[in-house]
Design goal:
It is a single chain. Helices cover 47% and strands 11% of the residues. With 300 residues, the chain is an alpha/beta fold. The strands form 2 sheets. Strands 2-1-3-4 form a 4-stranded parallel β-sheet, with helices on both faces. Strands 6-5-7-8 form a 4-stranded parallel β-sheet. Helix 2 (49-59) links the parallel strand 1 and strand 2 (63-67). Helix 5 (148-165) runs antiparallel to helix 6 (170-198), helix 6 packs parallel to helix 10 (283-296) and helix 8 packs across helix 9. The radius of gyration is 25 Å and the shape is globular. The structure holds zinc ion (ZN).
Amino acid sequence: MGSQGKGIVNPLSLVAAALVILMLAATTAGCTGTDRQDDGKIVVAVTIPPEQEFVERVGGDHVRVILLVPPGADPHTYEPPPGVIADLAGADIYAVVGSGIEFELAWKEKIAAMNPGMLIVDCSRGIDLISTGEEDHSGTDPHIWLSPGNAKVMVENICQGLIEVDPANADEYRRNADAYQGELDALDREIAGALAESGVEKIMVYHPSWAYFARDYGLEEIPIENEGKEPSPRGIEHLIKQAKEEHITVIFASPEYSTRSAEVIADEIGGTVVLVSPLAKDYLANMRHVAAAFAGSGSP
Ligand code: ZN
């Protein structure tokens, strides 16, 4: 091989060298979603904290989660800082809630276009969405995760997505998903039992996040917020009248939203405001807490 052309460089070897350099550059840049991160973990982007919990419970040590809407932020209005979106260039999966959350409606396409190699998992696939009938809105109630039955479906979709991207660990993902889905089944039975025993039928809440929960357990949700805004004085008056008629003594609000009108109503009916979070990461414990709060709102 050493005798090739005295001082003349073979043009083919130049091309080959250039190709090698290009390939090395492409590998180290790691700009496609299918490349593993340095730590070998599958990087999964999620929108809200409960999804982070689901992904971590199924993926265990094999996943690293990027949470897009941080704790305490409102996924209906949140805008991410530019750095966070840039982080997603290295993600393997974006698990969208998929039910019409404003954050996803605004950002999903941009995120997908930036990282075409990334698998988009729609966690809402297989869930019967509740229509809101609001024309200026996506038309569906986005709060699907607040029902243990729906959470089971979301966990299943996440499990399928992880298996697709990382089939080598499929058995482990399946085992983890089965175990967590078993815990969700137990939670569902526990909540159904507690609410049936309480006799509570109606819950008055500031932000209407609980329609799926209400559907599963035969409750009626009475929202205070009116299409994302504080109610008018007339609206508050009507709610006070309704609360008195229904013997409602607890008004539910959440840490993510204003409690002003909830407090006004509670004062007028001689009741209390109880905070329940629709977005807490520790899903099982939070849902137990919420169900106990709802069940406890029935007794005088
Ligand atoms: Zn909400």
